[in-house]
Amino acid sequence: MRYEGKIYRPPPEAGAYILQCTVGCSYNKCTYCSMYKDVRYRVRTIEELKEDIQMAKQAYGSGVEKVFLSDGDAISLPTDTLLEILSELYGAFPELSHVSTYAGPQSTLSKTLEELTQLRKAGLTMTYLGVESGSDRVLTEVRKGVSAKEMLEAGSSIVKSGIKLVAMVMVGLGGRGERSRIHAIETAELINRMKPHLLGTLTTVAMPGTVLHRQMTRGDFTLLDPYEVLEEMKVLLEHITLPDLYIDGTHASNLMPIKGMLKEIAPDVITAIDNHLGRRDNNLIGQAYMGRF
């Protein structure tokens, strides 16, 4: 396939055919993000995309079942363009049942509920929204570009349209001490109101080359240690009031991988966290980050 730059996709999209609709991210200002720094943002033409789809059909046959629309914010494309892409994909791959994309909050807010509903009917089945935090202070500090109220509006519109929403949040993004607790509580409250299909959790890591890494180097921001990470995760779980919410915390950045429905996993996870916090034997130091974003 004719990919430009590094290609990223969420872990659940393993095995999906990736169609690069845009090169880079339409926003790309978040302080913690190291993605798409090696390319200049541009929208690929519909002619290019149709050629790619036909190339994929020749390479993979008609049995493709999953497609991920990249790069960072394909939902930013005009609705008519997205509808044309979806029509081409479902025409090329008769067994296709799942098409997903990252969705930036600003781009999502630029679309009406009617437009999002059209996209769902045309076959856009899932979007990944980087919520990160429910705190206005944190969202401002990391230059997310929207308030918590606007983030809620974006996520709620996706849910109302019938598109499955994966909301992603970042443990540790608010900083240490009371800031950590407030970040966790306000994030849980936002998720409770947004009611996503799935909640994905990541642990904040200062990736080299990012604004956050420079802030950490200067001493303007301090990452949580593993025990503070667990404390914040416990607060988050204790304040989410959606018992049937499915949580996927298996991202490589997480100290304690968790996966399952909240009502089924929360008691055991909280007990495990309490055991670690009770011992504090330093066995966890240096283990919070085990991979790359």
Automatic annotation (TrEMBL):
Pfam families: Radical_SAM (PF04055). Residues 8-243 form the Radical SAM core domain. The keyword Metal-binding applies. InterPro entries: Aldolase_TIM (IPR013785), BchE-like (IPR051198), Elp3/MiaA/NifB-like_rSAM (IPR006638), rSAM (IPR007197), rSAM_sf (IPR058240). It comes from the Bacteria. Transmembrane segments: none annotated. This is Radical SAM protein.
